[in-house]
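Customer escalation, tier 2.

The customer says the design service returned an amino acid string that "doesn't look like it belongs to this structure." They asked us to rerun it and document both sides in this ticket. The original structure tokens are below, unchanged.
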């Protein structure tokens, strides 16, 4: 039985980068061997185990065969006869198909070191086209490794994957997971550009409007200038799609509800800010739509993003003040005083609505 660290950890070590986690492959072992050694099984589809002390993942060396659609459409075979080279052959890119023994000996059957030196993303074999998720992984790696390019033959295989219709079989959660990881990298525009170059957005989100397909240099520059994945999602969706389009795409990709809600608020806020003129009544309607009275922090987060991208404005200042009034309880106290003085026969809801508009009128007159 031999144990090797494989994949990204080896690649990162050779690049002088720190790696957040390590994957291990065990060659020449059985499931029983792993259980006797104290490992805990966790793999549902193939034998993966947690180390009894480090809790790192150890997988038995395995081969795979295409048996269906999507990234889950594979049959795996793992037994002591599977070699390390056979296990590495099923991996996506040569720079990820290297292994290192406990003594530091490097195993590089597919010239990953050479491609690493040439800063080239190249597929390991023609089996690349069997897993559509690899297109998104390639795009994500470009967002991280800014000086890497893609081998022409690998781009050709990506085009074959697109034409085959396999991208449509990707599980929604995996599409979002890969895109979200890329959104957190240094330059997500490189990820989006590759997918656009492949004309793959329509395959990844059929019948949905995808904002990235219309991006050009100004949009990419603004996107890269934001500092976290959530703000990048909110900008990409909220500044370019209407609420219905956002909800459609969120459903297609299973976006987190918080991200969807922020994007919808951003869409409403951005559209309202584009108006040439708005009176106090329109401002009141805007505050109702974005629900500042119950969820002020959400609007504040969006407003800060708008200020960062579009600069300060009377509207953004008004929003800042409105949020502060709600969060500090001043609005609630103002509303409470009005309701406490309801005259006999006056509908409380009507009084509350008038009081709310009076509060908005005061804000509007202060900033406009």
């Amino acid at each position: 039985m031999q144990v090797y660290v494989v994949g990204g950890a080896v690649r990162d070590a050779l690049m002088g980068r720190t790696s957040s986690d390590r994957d291990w492959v065990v060659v020449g072992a059985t499931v029983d061997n792993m259980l006797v050694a104290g490992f805990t099984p966790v793999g549902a589809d193939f034998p993966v185990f947690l180390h009894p002390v480090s809790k790192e993942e150890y997988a038995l060396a395995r081969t795979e065969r295409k048996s269906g659609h999507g990234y889950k459409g594979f049959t795996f075979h793992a037994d002591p006869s599977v070699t390390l080279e056979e296990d590495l052959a099923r991996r996506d890119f040569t720079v990820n198909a290297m292994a290192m023994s406990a003594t530091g000996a490097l195993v590089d059957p597919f010239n990953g070191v050479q491609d690493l030196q040439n800063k080239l993303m190249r597929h390991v074999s023609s089996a690349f086209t069997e897993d559509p998720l690899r297109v998104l992984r390639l795009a994500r790696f470009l967002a991280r490794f800014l000086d890497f390019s893609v081998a022409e033959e690998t781009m050709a295989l990506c085009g074959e994957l697109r034409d085959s219709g396999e991208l449509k079989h990707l599980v929604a959660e995996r599409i979002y997971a890969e895109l979200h990881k890329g959104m957190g990298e240094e330059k997500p525009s490189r990820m989006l550009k590759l997918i656009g170059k492949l004309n793959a957005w329509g395959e990844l989100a059929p019948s949905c409007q995808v904002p990235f397909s219309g991006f050009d240099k100004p949009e990419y520059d603004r996107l890269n200038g934001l500092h976290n994945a959530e703000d990048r999602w909110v900008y990409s969706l909220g500044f370019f799609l209407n609420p219905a389009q956002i909800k459609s795409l969120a459903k297609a990709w299973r976006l987190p509800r918080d991200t969807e809600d922020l994007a919808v608020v951003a869409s409403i806020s951005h559209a309202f800010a584009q108006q040439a003129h708005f009176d106090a009544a329109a401002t009141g309607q805007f505050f109702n739509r974005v629900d500042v009275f119950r969820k002020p922090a959400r609007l504040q987060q969006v407003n800060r993003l708008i200020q960062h991208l579009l600069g300060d404005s009377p509207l953004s200042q008004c929003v800042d003040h409105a949020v502060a009034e709600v969060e500090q309880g001043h609005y609630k106290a103002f509303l409470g005083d009005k309701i406490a003085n309801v005259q006999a026969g006056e509908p409380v809801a009507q009084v509350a609505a008038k009081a709310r508009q009076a509060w908005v009128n005061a804000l509007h007159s202060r900033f406009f």
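Tier 2 assessment: The sequence is consistent with the input. The radius of gyration is 27 Å. The longest strand covers residues 2-6. Sent an explanation to the customer and offered a walkthrough call.
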